[in-house]
Write a structure and sequence with these properties.
The chain is an alpha/beta fold and about 350 residues long. It is built from 15 helices and 10 strands. The protein folds into 2 domains: about 170 residues, Glucose-6-phosphate isomerase like protein, domain 1 (Rossmann fold); about 140 residues, 3-Layer(aba) Sandwich (Rossmann fold), CATH 3.40.50. It is globular and about 50 Å long. GO terms for molecular function: carbohydrate derivative binding.
């Protein structure tokens, strides 16, 4: 049964869940104490380095956390390849290592197996999930509930931003912070949605017929670029590919021409500043640039979607919001239903 057959409007779940995010983020900040308790347990057992395990949108949240841990905590951090455990049976020495497993459902068999194996090998394991009753929460020694509530659209929106904020609150608390930079994140998120509505509509109108998109960002915003490509691919079926701005200049820029749309995530800070050379290069090759972020007004672009400025380390929570709306709008404009992308299910189980 399609959404039209059931009387449900295409995209109504995704639209509602995007709109729920300001209140949801504010509520998570109010529950910071629960996350700080987990952080105290981590701080009491200082790790040699950290590892992150995730898939899909959660993998992009883990990429964000990688930057947070390396920059804010000064710890070497890597992204786990689950197949090293699930397919090859590797048993690395993980004593004094922090493993954070990130999964919205907490039900992916590979992440569960990685977490169980890491705990046996001596790691301090932490699950970050939207499902407190999940096997992943039970398998990990410590657990963080992101508290996003039920998400009905296949495309992750509120669970993604809630995961970002939960990871920030966790890592900030490990370093002794009290979440000062996100104290008003709910209000900022509401402004980010309200103030970008017209610009998002212009972007939908301009890019509704595009077929090839490159997304790019640097630093913390690289995670936003990766999540943007996934959202555009799964909702609008676009050929979307994400690159770090630095990697884009190391070869892929040669494939960019006037038929390429480039979504550049550029927020105030060192990462956004490093994007200037990247955008000079792609505009020089004729690409049509859509700039999104608090520094979007300072770069060459055909369309700019500016969001409120915040400290660079929490910018990804805000800059992804209008991009979610863009993915929703493009999917509807192209005749699709982003609540039910073809061939996809809400929970993907891999090993």
């Amino acid at each position: 049964m399609t959404s039209r057959d059931s009387g449900q409007r295409p995209g109504q779940h995704m639209s509602a869940e995007v709109a729920q995010q300001p209140d949801m983020l504010a509520g998570l900040v109010d529950r910071r104490g629960d996350i700080a308790e987990v952080a105290r347990s981590i701080a009491a057992r200082p790790p040699r380095f950290a590892l992150l395990a995730a898939r899909g949108s959660s993998d992009h949240a883990a990429l964000y956390a990688k930057y947070l841990i390396e920059v804010l905590l000064g710890l070497p951090t890597g992204l786990v390849s689950p197949s090293t455990s699930t397919l090859y049976g590797a048993k690395p020495d993980l004593r004094d290592v922090l493993l954070i497993s990130v999964s919205q459902s907490g039900g992916s068999p590979d992440l569960l197996e990685v977490t169980e194996a890491a705990r046996r090998q001596g790691a301090l394991t932490v699950s970050v999930s939207n499902t407190p009753s999940s096997p992943l929460h039970s398998a990990a020694e410590l657990a963080v509930d992101i508290g996003a509530g039920p998400e009905n659209a296949v495309a992750a929106t509120k669970t993604y931003t809630s995961t970002l904020l939960a990871l920030y609150l966790l890592i900030d608390a490990v370093r002794g912070g009290e979440g000062a930079h996100v104290a008003s994140i709910g209000e900022q998120a509401q402004r980010a949605l309200d103030s970008t509505e017209d610009a998002v509509a212009r972007a939908v109108d301009r890019y509704r017929f595009v077929e090839r998109v490159i997304t790019t960002g640097r630093g913390y915003s690289y995670a936003s670029a990766a999540e943007s490509a996934l959202k555009l691919a799964e909702t609008s079926y676009l050929a979307a590919r994400a690159y770090s701005g630095a990697d884009l200049l190391h070869g892929p820029v040669a494939a960019i021409d006037e038929d390429t749309a480039v979504l550049a995530v550029t927020s105030a800070g060192k990462g956004g500043a490093a994007m200037h050379d990247v955008l000079d290069a792609v505009t020089g090759r004729g690409a049509d640039v859509l700039a999104v972020g608090s520094a979007a007004g300072k770069v060459p672009a055909a369309v700019r979607i500016e969001v409120p400025e915040t400290t660079e380390e929490v910018a990804p929570i805000l800059e992804i919001l209008p991009i979610q709306r863009l993915a929703l709008g493009l999917a509807l404009a192209r005749g699709g239903d982003p609540d039910r992308p073809r061939g996809l299910q809400k929970v993907t189980r891999t090993r």
